[in-house]
Amino acid sequence: MELLFFLLIVLPMISVVWFLILFFSVGLSVGKFLEVLENRAEAKEQKRESQERIRKQEKRIRKQKEALEESRRAVGDTNEALMPWQVRRLAAEEEALRIEEEQPRFAARVVERAEEARQVRAEVKELLRTGSLTVPGLLERADSDETLARMKVLAMLESLPTLDKAAAHRAMREIGIDESRRLSGLGPRQRSTLINRFG
């Protein structure tokens, strides 16, 4: 009788519990995987748009260079002394061209730095999720790392394994931290409250 009870009642209940545990754990990891894929696709799209802007800018610069060379040749062919306004105009055109030539390189550096910062913050979020990094440890690292200092407090709390998004928003309201606040903008009272509560 006991064996029959075990086979008909207890064993199916254990199976259902294991199935639910597996179902939710797989669902959570698939959700995180999809989120990572979405972030990567977004970063690739931003990089592609940036490269397209750089190409257009370089094309415009080439055209301006050609026009500048043409105007120099035209002025040089006249065998006349240049008027002061012509000298100023040529100098201004050369300076504008030099500045525009530097812009694509500067834009590319900005995109690279933004991508590096995103990767660093993603790694930190993963460390928080796994418990390898604590809130006090992250706040301490943020004091000396500008990339981490620009991380939002809400993103930090959402990455904690003990909080979901709703609980993170609720904790922010309870502590009195604005949702757009970054780690570098935390006051001493807010930092100590976060450390006491989540440390």
Summary of the model, kept short:
This protein has seven helices and no strands. It has helices at 2-77, 84-130, 135-144, 146-149, 153-159, 165-175, 188-198.
Describe the secondary structure blueprint for this structure.
Elements (H helix, E strand, L loop, with lengths): L1 H76 L6 H47 L4 H10 L1 H4 L3 H7 L5 H11 L12 H11 L1
Helix pairs in contact: 1-2, 5-6
Report on the architecture of this protein.
- This protein has 199 residues and is mainly α.
- The protein folds into 2 domains: 44-130; 134-199, Helicase, Ruva Protein, domain 3.
- The chain has 7 helices and no strands.
- It has helices spanning 2-77, 84-130, 135-144, 146-149, 153-159, 165-175, 188-198.
- Helix 1 (2-77) runs antiparallel to helix 2 and helix 5 (153-159) crosses helix 6.
- The longest helix is centred in the N-terminal third of the chain and has 76 residues, at 2-77.
- The model has no long low-confidence stretch (mean pLDDT 78).
Order of helices and strands: HHHHHHH
* Helix count from the secondary structure assignment: 7
Helix content: over 70%
Can you summarize the main beta sheet?
none
Q: Mean pLDDT, nearest integer?
A: 78
Estimate nothing, just give the exact number of structural domains: 2
From the spread of the alpha carbons, the general shape counts as: elongated
Assess the beta-strand content as a share of residues.
under 5%
**Distance between the ends:** 51 Å
Low confidence ranges: none
Give the strand tally. Answer: 0
Structural class: mainly alpha
Cα radius of gyration in angstroms: 29 Å
